[in-house]
């Protein structure tokens, strides 16, 4: 892939973030998601690439979502797989909470896991603990491994977990081990990649969330030298059958090279609301400020990008009531 794609993809996430941020705190999650999707699709179609969505928000008959199999880009340039979540944290935006992102990832064609839209059990860590975790091991063993790898007492390890009833047993085990917990309402892509940035104060992520988000987070962690392990969790025989038709073994632990092959992948995200890693969109008069993260696995380059956008010159990003 051309390295110039990195900054082109930031344009995509910036557009989605600006469009959806206009709905912050209004209690209208679907409207926020639609705004992000529409803006993202519009800018995607100006990017010089031959992209195919392998991880999206739905199937072809669920427009206006960016659906699996949709073609993106100008039709010229590198052939790439696209994993996309126009608004990671629709509920967060609706309530005005933390860590909503517009996020996407790309890799050379055939290199991203074609993940069905179902639950995935996950464990994620930053570079220091790579090779030390095991999704099949008890919670306490993984906490001890991370503590040792980061030269911490277990009482100083911070685990991130989605605040869901299904995770009560995980939360209880973390507390019994003496570690600390940061419960998040939504947005486990941010939760996973935060493990690779010391300034977030997060050491490990546990629990189940969306499989598509797991693949996107894996791309981010590959760029950062971190690790994510996953296992698909079908909730019905229909979902299990779908996995089988896609050639996926639901009992198999998915390692980094299963989730994203090779080393040529790009991750881009723009903050929609405030977060530990990225600031949210800030509007002042007729301009908006954005804060984005873009990373390329092949070079290991990590860039934080601040953007100032004239809403007069980008009227398609302004919400019309």
Indicate the percent of residues in helices.
25-40%
**What is the distance, rounded to the nearest whole angstrom, between the alpha carbons of the first and last residues?**
40 Å
**Beta-strand segment tally:** 13
The largest β sheet comes out as: 8 strands, mixed
Note the run of SSEs as H and E: HHEEEHEEHEHEHEHEHHEEEE
Gross morphology is globular
> What portion of residues belong to β-strands?
25-35%
Radius of gyration: 19 Å
The pLDDT mean sits at 91
Number of helices: 9
Q: Find the structural class using helix and strand composition.
A: alpha+beta
Poorly predicted regions are none
Descriptors for this entry?
321 residues, alpha+beta, 8-stranded mixed β-sheet
């Amino acid at each position: 892939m051309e390295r110039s794609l990195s900054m082109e993809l930031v344009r995509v996430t910036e557009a989605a973030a600006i469009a959806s941020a206009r709905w912050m705190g209004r209690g209208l999650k679907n409207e926020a998601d639609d705004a992000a999707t529409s803006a993202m699709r519009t800018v995607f179609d100006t990017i010089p690439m031959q992209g195919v969505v392998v991880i999206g928000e739905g199937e072809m008959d669920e427009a206006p979502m960016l659906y699996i199999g949709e073609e993106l880009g100008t039709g010229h340039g590198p052939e790439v797989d696209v994993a996309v979540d126009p608004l990671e944290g629709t509920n967060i935006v609706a309530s005005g909470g933390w860590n909503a992102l517009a996020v996407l990832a790309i890799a050379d064609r055939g290199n991203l896991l074609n993940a069905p839209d179902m639950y995935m059990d996950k464990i994620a860590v930053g570079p220091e603990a790579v090779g030390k975790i095991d999704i099949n091991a008890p919670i306490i063993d993984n906490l001890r491994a991370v503590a040792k790898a980061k030269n911490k007492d277990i009482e100083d390890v911070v685990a991130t977990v989605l605040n869901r009833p299904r995770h009560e047993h995980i939360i209880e085990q973390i507390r019994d081990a003496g570690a600390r917990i940061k419960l998040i309402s939504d947005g486990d892509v941010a939760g996973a990649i935060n493990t690779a940035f010391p300034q977030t104060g997060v050491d490990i992520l546990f629990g189940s969330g969306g499989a598509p988000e797991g693949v996107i987070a894996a791309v981010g962690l590959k760029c950062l030298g971190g690790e994510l392990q996953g296992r698909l969790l079908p909730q019905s025989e229909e979902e299990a059958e779908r996995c089988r038709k896609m050639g996926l073994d639901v009992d198999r632990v998915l390692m980094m090279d299963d989730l994203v092959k090779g080393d040529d992948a790009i991750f881009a995200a723009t903050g929609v609301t405030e977060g530990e890693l990225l600031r949210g969109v800030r509007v002042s008069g007729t301009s908006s400020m954005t804060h984005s993260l873009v990373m390329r696995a092949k070079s290991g380059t990590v860039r934080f990008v601040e953007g100032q956008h004239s809403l007069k010159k980008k009227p398609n990003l302004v919400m019309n009531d």
